[in-house]
Write a structure and sequence with these properties.
Layout: H1 14-26, E1 30-41, E2 47-53, E3 60-66, H2 67-72, E4 81-91, E5 96-106, H3 109-125, E6 143-148, H4 153-165, E7 171-175, H5 183-196, E8 200-207, H6 221-229, E9 234-238, H7 247-250, E10 253-254, H8 258-265, H9 269-302, H10 305-308, H11 312-353, H12 355-360, E11 365-367, E12 384-389, E13 392-397
Parallel strand pairs: 3-5, 6-7, 6-8, 8-9, 9-10
Antiparallel strand pairs: 1-2, 1-4, 2-3, 4-5, 11-12, 12-13
Amino acid sequence: MAELQSSADRPQPLGRVVAALKGWVERTGDIWVEGQVLEINRRSGATQYLKLRDSRVNVSATLTCSRLVLDNAGPLTEGATVAAWVKARVWEQNTQLSFECRELRPMGEGQLLARLEHLKRTLQAEGLFDPHRKQRLPFVPAVIGLISGANSDAERDVVTNTRRRWPSARFEVRNTPVQGATAAAEIIDALAELDRTPGVEVIVIARGGGSLEDLLPFSDEGLVRAVAACRTPVVSAIGHEKDSPILDNVADLRASTPTDAAKRIVPDATEERALVQQARSRMAQAVVSRLENEQRLLDQLRSRPVLLNPLASFEMHQERLDSQRASLHAAISRAVDDESRQLRHLLERVRSLSPQRTLERGYAILTDGTDTITSVTSVDEGDDLLAYLADGELVLEVRQSTPNPHPQAPAGGDHD
């Protein structure tokens, strides 16, 4: 900038001045700077934007970086302190000053969060957080294992609220440090002991709230793996709703608070009693409804004509049978009458042709005792003849025979 000479009469072109400024700024090279994240502006493209400020003075700057640089920094949040490896840039078009970020490293709590995030991703990749590994808690555990600090609020919250809900609940309590260098190892030992204890059907690891550093034992890799290998279902009840150690991800159930854990491990006896009463009432009503329904079906069946009068169909057939029988009798009677009339007619005809009828008309039959006399020439005077009349017989003596010169059929004679 010093070698550029200018005056009101001979001003320097703006572009030359900006180019000179750009060259001077960019000669500073790469440098590590510390700042607090004010804003993270993630874009869909490759370039991402951050805004940092100096926490000691009122100075801020815009940073650009690649998506890979931002992702490698871990879970950054606004307000986190970071160390950024940057190179200053001046854009000639608008003389805007920005910093190209080559690497981001969280500092302080942010660095700790990044380390925990890396461990979380590693364990997740191994499948330790998979839902299919989660074990179902028993409805009412016979014995509840509890790991907490000695005489802690967390222990009292779990025990008191559990027994308030289920008065007969039994506990196996193991008191351990819940923060500090030895906490994770002692919690692991207590977990293994409770996992071996007969009757323990669920284990609760509880602690009240605390800072990120205080809750570090519950993100310890050894503890997380021990919980994943535990045969007994484990409930994580660490801190408050906002606290989320890695233990929450591997536990079979996460409770937001120790009090919430008490609500999750046992049912409410009062509610269950009410549910039993409701179930019994519903069952009784169901039985009554079923009986009423079956009674209606029986009544409907009984109201059917075939059940009201089982003989009704037989009576109908009996009526048809009686009618047919009467028709048959009438037909037989008519047939018998017709045959009887015809028989009487034939009988009359036969009778009219019989010798008896001839005799009844006054005729007589003459025989010589052997043959019938049919001609006067068949007898001689003095012969004895036998005469058959309608009402008896006569013995006659022939005194005279007179032949008929013109014989003809007897008057009134019957001929067939």
